Amino acid sequence: MRNIFIIGILIVSFSITLKAQDTMYVYQQGGIITKIAVNKIDSIIFYAVTNGGTIEPISKDTVVTDVDGNVYNTVTIGSQVWLAENLKTTKYNDGTPIPLVKDSIEWSNLSTPGYCWYSNDSVSYAQTYGAMYNWYTLETGNLCPTGWRIPSEEDWGKLIEYLGDKAGGKLKETGTTHWKSPNTGATNSSGFTALPGGVRRYDGIFGLIEEYANWWTTYFEDERALVRLVTKDTDVLGNFPLNDNRLLHPIKKLLSLGKKLNEFARLWQLLP
Questions:
Q1: How many CB atoms lie within 10 A of CB 214?
Q2: What string of pLDDT tens digits covers the 272 residues of the chain?
Q3: Which of 44, 55, 98, 131 is most exposed by smallest CB count within 10 Å?
Q4: SS3 of 25, please?
Q5: Is 105 exposed, middle or buried (0-12, 13-18, 19+ CB in 10 A)?
Q6: Alpha carbons 23 and 5: distance in angstroms, whole number
Q7: What is the DSSP letter of 141?
């Protein structure tokens, strides 16, 4: 198991490059209090002592701007930096427009990239919940702002490991402003602020607004795509195979159906 150091300091400003074979020494009043091989360190968290004497983490949180000019807050969770809200860009990162697909029949026949707003109502839903993208949009590799990416299933797993028990509740916004009751276990202690933007199915039908928060992973293998989700009735961050037999469609159609579904995009990057 790798170690995490929590170091309390007043001011820190330095740049250092370490190699895997190096050893890190921690000093206090001129004496070595511990040492550890660099390749066994998972992360180093610096804490600052405030004027009131309390110890608080030095935040890496910042803002990100996409090609549309939308500005997003970020939140640091463990060694990962996440957008604190869902992506809402209508263009790829090279400025090319992403097709807006409103019609349900057109959506059900789609085999190319597309996005939409919940219930085709950008005025009511865009700013709060973000845009919904199909898998073909993710496949282009051009959806995310530079330096950001769609999380893999492994990335989501690391987030769950860091948050521990009841990870879904630690991600959800508290209260019932956006979530329907009971919003089980919601604390938002992570600052992730998960909101229930609902779904758009393979047939173009919208549903589950205020009940269901869901995000793409990059996993798509063996005729199966996975999303991560949390609902109003649970504090568990689950995963769901979008195109298994619960969709009640023939096996030979599963691959294309999984790509037709719309999900939200929550981006992340490693701490610099």
A1: 25
A2: 444 443 333 333 333 445 555 676 666 655 666 777 766 655 555 554 545 555 554 444 477 888 898 888 888 888 888 888 899 999 999 999 999 999 999 988 888 899 999 999 999 999 999 999 888 888 898 988 888 888 888 888 888 999 998 999 999 999 999 999 999 999 999 999 999 999 888 788 899 999 999 888 887 766 667 788 899 999 988 876 654 322 221 112 223 334 444 455 655 555 44
A3: 55
A4: strand
A5: exposed
A6: 14
A7: S
